[in-house]
Amino acid sequence: MENRASTDPQHRARPETPAAVSAGARRNPAAGPPAVTVEGLDKVYDSGHRALQDVRLEIERGEIFALLGPNGAGKTTLIGVICGLVNPTDGQVAVHGHDIVRDWRRARGMVGLVPQELATDTFETVWATVSLSRGLFGKPPNPAHIEKVLRDLALWDKRDNAIMTLSGGMKRRVLIAKALAHEPRVLFLDEPTAGVDVELRREMWEVVRSLREGGVTVILTTHYIEEAEEMADRVGVIHGGRLVRVQAKDELMQELGRKQLKLQLQEPLEAVPAELARHGLELSADGCELVYTFATQGERTGVTGLLHDLAAHGIRFHDLHTSQSSLEDIFVDLVKDSR
């Protein structure tokens, strides 16, 4: 069944967001259209719940894009629309330039989806299941490609095993193999490492990187912020159905990140002296540690002035160390500010 989205010109004439403009500025026109383009996307369910609100996004070819957001933020709905599983209320979506409504066959053929849920009760072999997935997209048999996919995912030795006999990690790899069987150019991974141990999670990260090296664009949703921090080229934060930030991960952490200088005092303080109030210092409950927070960007951190003032007031310390905010800290702040 084809999706139906509004084609009213007034809905297509909305101005681009800064995120869309910056993404377009980075793209080399000779490389073709973006992997995914989303313009003015809305989704309102029959219950009246607005799951997506004017979402605008460009995902570049060959990048790993992490979509972050709390439960109910709209991540799954957005993926469902792009993959043709959810009908949008309004807006336009294209995959490699193919509109998901007007050219839905080619658009969907370019997309692979790895769901969070595991299929654990099938007696089919790995080879048969992955081969069938290719046929469902109308692709002719290609044993060489299926073999390559299984070898790349370390599944070749399990090709004749029934899926129900595999471990949880191997079943998750089978899901990825099924999604890659028809040679998609865009791969969606919905919580790919949910419920798996740390060792397997890191193995999955390597799989994702190898896919990107093979030219596949990877869109990742995850609750593990360290996963996005480890792998993503860019990060999109969604909350309440709205994209509140889309930015290169390193730029985001540089712009919104903070550093803290923690000073272990030789003698405890009862309170921060009023003369030091301009530094915005925080004193620990036991009075033995001073914490100074400053922005990561900017030429002047204020640390030199702080140390000078501490010495002038006879406040001595025996140790100090610095820490920098993580992507998780930034994500929490962005979601909090968007409420």
Please state the structural category.
alpha/beta
Relative helix content: 25-40%
- The amount of beta strand, in percent, is 15-25%
Strand tally is: 14
Shape descriptor reads elongated
Largest sheet: 6 strands, mixed
**SSE series:** HHEEEHEEHEHHHEHEHEEHEEEHEH
Distance between the termini: 36 Å
Question: What is the overall pLDDT average?
Answer: 80
Strand adjacency order, main sheet: 6-7-8-3-9-10
How many distinct helices?
Answer: 12
Give a written overview of the molecule.
This protein has 339 residues and is α/β, with parallel strands linked by helices. It has helices at residues 9-12, 18-26, 75-82, 104-109, 126-136, 143-152, 168-180, 198-213, 225-231, 249-256, 303-312, 327-337, and strands at 36-44, 50-59, 64-68, 90-95, 98-99, 111-114, 186-190, 217-221, 234-239, 242-248, 258-265, 282-283, 289-295, 317-324. The strands form three sheets. Strands 6-7-8-3-9-10 form a six-stranded mixed sheet, sandwiched between helices. β9 (234-239) and β10 (242-248) form a beta hairpin. α5 (126-136) packs parallel to α7. The model is unreliable at 1-25 (pLDDT under 50).
